[in-house]
Amino acid sequence: MPTTIPVYLQHDPIKLILLDQTKLPIAEEFLYLDTRQSILEAIKKLRVRGAPAIGIAAAYGIYVCLSQKEYQSLADMEQDMKELTEYFASSRPTAVNLFWALDRMNKTFTEYRNKPDASQAEILASLLQESQSIFDEDQEMGKAIGMHGLSLFDKKRQWGVMTHCNAGGLATSGYGTALAPLYLGHEQGYQFKVYSNETRPLLQGSRLTAYELTKGGLDVTVLCDNMVSLVMKEKKIDAVIVGADRIAANGDTANKIGTSGVAILARYYHIPFYVAAPSSTFDVSTETGRDIVIELRDGDEVVNGFGKRTGPKEAQVYNPAFDVTDASLITAIITEKGIIESPNAEKIRSHLSK
Ligand code: MRU
Question: Are residues 93 and 198 in the same domain?
């Protein structure tokens, strides 16, 4: 299991603790945050990132920020809850777990706010409990995804597994999603040779995935994104597993930019392409991938990444952070409830209702 949890709560004094992932792989530095501005900045700048971890950070962030004040009235507290929700929701548009977690916190707030003897302390206690449940459920979901994902492999031979971006412990509160079967299998004696695509422009594949897998004792090889076709052709890859930021009702899946290219190549080379994600990453209100909002980020990440200028200031830069993989390219989606083979709207609906 990954050793460093990237997002958690400190109770006394109340703070959101985040591993600053922009500092990896050089240093493990933690941030102790208790203001809405610092929490928003941390999500926007990818100090905390990965769909489930963003959701957990926002949930704890609501509790932490509301705990800092003595409100004159519950109406004032309610107004602040509304403002905080809108503020955190403005941080990153694609990962649906953010909105899912904020929605859970709001439902809890409303439930306790509407009780006849509602008090600020009780509302806060209920928000603490809800944010803690989001964290705990995420840990359980990682283990369950790992277990279901592992059923796709066996111990008879070594498996070459490619992943893209980081959908491991650093993106969640536990085993991760795409990396969960690999961690679990490693603990049980399965042999995995992991190929981690570097993931331009912010290098989550080499800075984060390779970092946490080597720390966990797994065999990992870093590839530049443009090497995918070659290593697939060389028959080094038996399966691809990636995470997801939002899965539409029909199975179209938004994930880190470059994922759809990997899926197209996997289909060409007859390699199974798996998406691993919890139920909270499904957005059944979004019919297809065409309706998923793709985050556009600062062009400097591409031509001046990590403070090193690699392109002229005068050039225009296009920097979408995610792309959408067509459901037809996905061999199966692995969730905490099981495996959806050749996903489509009907199978997804019945799987989620289990
Ligand atoms: O921009 P990031 O680093 O937040 O993007 C993360 C990804 O694309 C992950 O694959 C996804 O959030 C799944 S994390 C379990």
Answer: no
